[in-house]
Amino acid sequence: MNIPQIEKTIKYSFKNKSLCEKAFSHSSYAHELHVEDNERLEFFGDAILNFLVSEYLYENFGDKDEGQLSKIKAKSVSTETLSQVVENLGLVGQILLFNFEKALQYSKKTHADLFEAVLAAIYIDGGMQEAKNFVLRFLKQHIDQIVSSGSYEDYKTALQEYAQGKKINLKYEMISKSGPEHRPIYKFCVKLDEVLCGIGEGSSKAGAQINAAKAAFEKIGTEKIGGTN
């Protein structure tokens, strides 16, 4: 790993360089070399991230109620959003992995975990203000886009409400499960009165169902679902 390049990218210089190295140490690498991995940092960073994003939403979106803020926060700190930030920053190649892991595609969860681990490392090294600067520097644009686009809407709940309103049967069926056991990919379809309306994939059953509901939501088109076009 190239610590000076990492620091340049994240716009933060570590006083304790070992914290930076630990943040980038995947469990496969750490276990092989008998050093500490980044999982404890990731755990701590998750809590810090949730606090800072909640604070930003509370202070800047007074027109949103508690339910909306919760949805926006969930989308803002999701694996999808955090992994996108890490990939856009070009930090993926800096992750310390053991050889056999390099033969596999890096998972989005690994990327998201890295964001949280780096955040915790910055907090420990430089304090809350530096941690806040890091979060807002790289997440603010994504959060604002999520709010303006309305992409935080709960498609699965909305589709359920739509089906109940129309008095039609809604059900999800698993089509397939693929990939390695530690990193499965699920594929689900959603049917309305036995009519296939959407198919979705995800790293969990719930995620695949949500993506299937979103596909159905988009297919139905101009009809209102759960108050959204």
> Gyration radius, to the nearest Å?
20 Å
Structural class: mainly alpha
Largest sheet geometry: 3 strands, antiparallel
Oligomer: single chain
Number of strands: 3
Low-confidence stretches: 100-105, 222-229
N-C termini distance? 47 Å
Assign an overall shape: globular
Order of helical and strand elements: HHHHHHHHHHEEEH
CATH topology term of the largest domain: Ribonuclease iii, N-terminal Endonuclease Domain, Chain A
Helix content: 55-70%
Blueprint (SSEs and pairs):
Blueprint: H1 3-10, H2 17-23, H3 27-33, H4 39-60, H5 66-76, H6 79-89, H7 99-102, H8 108-126, H9 128-149, H10 155-166, E1 170-178, E2 185-192, E3 195-202, H11 205-220
Antiparallel strand pairs: 1-2, 2-3
Helix pairs in contact: 2-8, 4-5, 4-8, 4-9, 5-9, 6-8, 8-9, 10-11
Report on this model:
- This protein is mainly alpha-helical and 229 residues long.
- The protein folds into 2 domains: 3-149, Ribonuclease III domain (Ribonuclease iii, N-terminal Endonuclease Domain, Chain A, Orthogonal Bundle), CATH 1.10.1520.10; 155-220, Double Stranded RNA Binding Domain (2-Layer Sandwich).
- The chain has helices spanning 3-10, 17-23, 27-33, 39-60, 66-76, 79-89, 99-102, 108-126, 128-149, 155-166, 205-220; strands spanning 170-178, 185-192, 195-202.
- It has a 3-stranded antiparallel beta sheet.
- α4 (39-60) crosses α5 and α4 crosses α8 (108-126).
- It is globular and about 60 Å long.
- Mean pLDDT is 86; it is low at 100-105 and 222-229.
